[in-house]
Design goal:
- It is built from twelve helices and two strands.
- The chain folds into two domains: about 210 residues, Up-down Bundle (Rhomboid-like fold), CATH 1.20.1540; about 55 residues.
- The two termini are about 25 Å apart.
- The longest helix is centred in the C-terminal third of the chain and has 38 residues.
- Strands 1-2 form a two-stranded antiparallel sheet.
- With about 300 residues, the protein is mainly α.
């Protein structure tokens, strides 16, 4: 996450302080760093489907709000997500979200070139941030984020509110609404695929040096299949072995009876310990949902780490 924040912020500072006042620089960046959703332009500059996710070119208060809102949301939600699943998972989600948003923008521009959904150039991390928000809301439906004047708000409600605001202000703004929707769809598809056992983030570890491993497995999808409905569990803590299949020892000696009693005692203790561990993990995950990862004690973090490695 630090890499993503650093690239976005450093570029914006260079742009706002130096490059924005040079006409040639502005034209060059629009042409070769921002995304032109015209299909022919994209064919000849395909790298812009990635580069536009790191380029914020707004000037003044509007530009500052644009990058500020994106980076705050990425930090607030990406921090906990990275702690749970690792840096490659967050990086893959960010990049794929931007690609999905850009592709949907290109599709809308190609099909409806004169519509309100078309745009001359697209830049900014909004599509990627929408993907991160949607994946977090899908993985953990009760996740909340604190907003000024509103207090704690479910991430799913925030996403819906922002998309509704996009549609309301569509006619009077140059917002790339289709890119936002593309980010949402990509984030949802990414999360659902991961919940069903498809690892879509392993390739991103190569970009980070190939050394970091996934810290936890994403939670399984809700039983009712709802988008943001309550998830019943995060981790699957293995059930204790069923001792009913253990071969019985023949004979009636005292040693044999003692051995059987010992096995039953150990099995009962293992079952009790496993149930207690699962309940403790559930409590810790509920705490993360309500207060964030940083609210955990060192002991709770260790318990969560051990559970994710089982």
């Amino acid at each position: 996450m630090r890499v993503l924040l650093t690239i976005n912020v450093v570029f914006y500072l260079l742009w706002a302080i130096l490059l924005a006042h040079i006409g040639v620089a502005r034209g060059f960046l629009l042409e070769y760093a921002a995304l032109s959703p015209a299909p022919l332009d994209f064919i000849f500059r395909p790298w812009t489907i990635l580069s536009y996710n790191f380029v914020h070119m707004g000037i003044g208060l509007g530009g500052l709000i644009h990058i500020g809102f994106n980076m705050l949301l990425l930090y607030w939600l990406g921090r906990d997500h990275e702690e749970m699943y690792g840096s490659p998972h967050l990086l893959a989600l960010y990049l794929l979200g931007g690609i999905g948003g850009g592709l949907l923008m290109i599709l809308f521009t190609g099909l409806f070139p004169g519509s309100l959904f078309a745009a001359n150039y697209v830049y900014g991390a909004s599509a990627s941030v929408f993907a991160v928000m949607t994946a977090v809301a899908t993985f953990y439906p009760d996740k909340r984020i604190g907003l000024l004047l509103l207090g704690p708000v479910k991430v799913s409600w925030l996403i819906g509110g922002l998309l509704l605001l996009d549609l309301i202000t569509l006619a009077g703004s140059n917002t790339a609404v289709a890119a936002h929707w593309g980010g949402v769809l990509t984030g949802f598809g990414f999360a659902r695929a991961e919940q069903h056992g498809y690892d879509l983030s392993s390739w991103a570890a190569v970009l980070l040096g190939g050394t970091e491993r996934r810290r936890a497995a994403p939670p399984k999808p809700p039983s009712d299949g709802g988008l943001f409905s309550q998830s019943t569990s995060w981790f699957s803590i293995g059930d204790p072995k069923d001792t009913s299949s253990t071969p019985r020892t023949s004979g009636t000696s005292g040693g044999s009876r003692k051995s059987r009693r010992s096995r039953r005692s150990k099995s009962s203790a293992s079952s009790t310990t496993s149930a207690a561990s699962e309940a403790e993990v559930d409590r810790i995950l509920d705490k993360i949902s309500e207060e964030g990862y940083d609210a955990l004690s060192e002991e709770e973090k260790q318990i969560l780490k051990k559970a994710s490695q089982n």
